[in-house]
């Protein structure tokens, strides 16, 4: 993986330059870096070219660590640095607990170290961050759905999708149907969202485009009956997978939740997928807790990750849900569904 370029990593905007130093001045304490590793280079103030050239030093990108060189790093030496990282992580929607884990790991990897070159420090910091994130992301690493379906060998393999309104359930089902088709698995969609009139048309559109059969329900009809019919149809036609769409429900709506429980009871799914919108930030965690306590789920698909510049919620979810995040939705096209991969996420943070 490519290490961050100079501009992406903390720059010593306030570090004393040698030529500015006064003879009797004491070494300055660490100044908080203005920017820490992030996806986009920070915007710096425009300065005249001459001035910029004068300020340019062939220094390491972690030269704000200069004062730490040749000495054993103590915890108090890195207080400002840790605080700045904490701020950045929380700003990126990484939950407090996850941020603390990352910072604790970072502290442990720095305190007590004696380094002679700032490049060494830079490497320690980056390695520590990557290792923490990898640990968090791999803890509940998603299983391979295609493998799982093939290995289980049950026909049909039933998947029920649920989540609150507008998270992307219908779009995700279309993406999954597309992915299954590419893998040589047939599917049928159950339009069990009988609550929202347009949901049936939306699914009919996708089903037609993807050439996947669809079992529709009547507006206001029994969603569990639609799922049941789709499963029966799959059995008689030898279809591999049933994808059950359900009405988006606000988790405060107890009637809809009861209805969802019924759909789950009747369709006896092999997999219950909770669809969460990454743009919901920490609210997605609350939704997940609610669905876990009221319906139960086996795996998560996180949508709209393409629109979530921060991405911290992916980390928080992976850490706190204790459930596998199997796919990420990264756009509105059928092929915009990717397996959840720590490498992808780490690259996103550090590139
Ligand atoms: N950018 C982006 N948009 C997405 C993604 N997934 C879904 N969307 C968009 O999100 C909007 C809502 O998606 P739907 O699939 O209708 O959501 P839903 O959960 O079925 O909605 P309800 O049936 O109302 O509960 C649509 O405009 C989708 O195109 C994604 O991964 N990235």
Automatic annotation (TrEMBL):
Gene3D superfamilies: P-loop containing nucleotide triphosphate hydrolases, Signal recognition particle SRP54, nucleotide-binding domain. The lineage of its organism: Archaea, Thermoproteota, Thermoprotei, Sulfolobales, Sulfolobaceae. Part of the signal recognition particle protein translocation system, which is composed of SRP and FtsY. PROSITE patterns: SRP54. Involved in targeting and insertion of nascent membrane proteins into the cytoplasmic membrane. Acts as a receptor for the complex formed by the signal recognition particle (SRP) and the ribosome-nascent chain (RNC). It is found in: Cell membrane; Cytoplasm. Its EC number is 3.6.5.4. CDD domains: FtsY. Its main location: membrane. Signal peptide: none annotated. Residues 43-57 have a biased composition (Basic and acidic residues). Residues 1-57 are annotated as: Disordered. GO terms for molecular function: GTP binding; GTPase activity; signal recognition particle binding. It catalyses: GTP + H2O = GDP + phosphate + H(+). The keyword Cell membrane applies. It is an enzyme of class 3 (hydrolase). It comes from the Archaea. GTP binds at residues 163-170, 245-249, 303-306. Keywords: Cell membrane, Cytoplasm, GTP-binding, Hydrolase, Membrane, Nucleotide-binding, Receptor. Pfam families: SRP54, SRP54_N. InterPro entries: AAA+_ATPase (IPR003593), P-loop_NTPase (IPR027417), Signal_recog_particl_SRP54_hlx (IPR013822), SR_rcpt_FtsY (IPR004390), SRP/SRP_N (IPR036225), SRP54_GTPase_dom (IPR000897), SRP54_N_sf (IPR042101). This is Signal recognition particle receptor FtsY.
């Amino acid at each position: 993986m490519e290490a961050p370029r100079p501009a992406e990593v903390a720059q010593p905007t306030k570090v004393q330059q040698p030529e500015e130093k006064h003879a009797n001045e004491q070494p300055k304490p660490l100044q908080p870096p203005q920017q820490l590793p992030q996806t986009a280079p920070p915007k710096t103030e425009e300065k005249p070219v001459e001035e910029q050239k004068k300020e340019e030093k062939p220094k390491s990108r972690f030269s704000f660590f200069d004062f730490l060189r040749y000495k054993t790093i103590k915890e108090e030496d890195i207080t400002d640095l840790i605080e700045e990282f904490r701020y950045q992580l929380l700003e990126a929607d990484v939950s407090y607990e996850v941020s603390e884990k990352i910072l604790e790991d970072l502290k442990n990897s720095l305190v007590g170290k004696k380094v002679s070159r700032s490049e060494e420090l830079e490497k320690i910091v980056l390695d520590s961050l990557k290792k923490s994130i990898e640990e968090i992301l791999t803890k509940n690493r998603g299983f391979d759905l295609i493998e799982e379906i093939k290995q289980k060998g049950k026909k049909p393999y039933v998947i029920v999708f649920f989540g609150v309104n507008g998270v992307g359930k219908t779009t995700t089902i279309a993406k999954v149907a597309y992915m299954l088709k590419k893998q040589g698995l047939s599917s049928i969609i159950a339009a069990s969202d009988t609550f929202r009139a347009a949901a049936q048309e939306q699914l009919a559109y996708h089903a037609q485009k993807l050439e996947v059969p669809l079992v529709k329900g009547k507006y206001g009809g029994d969603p569990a009956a639609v799922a049941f019919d789709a499963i029966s149809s799959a059995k008689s036609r030898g279809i591999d997978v049933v994808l059950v769409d359900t009405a988006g429900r606000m988790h405060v709506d107890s009637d809809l939740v009861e209805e969802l429980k019924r759909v789950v009871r009747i369709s006896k799914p092999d997999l219950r997928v909770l669809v969460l919108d990454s743009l919901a930030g920490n609210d997605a965690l609350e939704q997940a807790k609610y669905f876990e306590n009221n319906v139960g789920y086996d795996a998560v698909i996180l949508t709209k990750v393409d629109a979530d510049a921060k991405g911290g919620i992916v980390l928080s979810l992976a850490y706190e849900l204790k459930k596998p995040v199997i796919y990420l939705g990264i756009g509105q096209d059928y092929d915009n569904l990717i397996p959840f991969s720590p490498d992808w996420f780490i690259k996103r943070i550090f590139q």
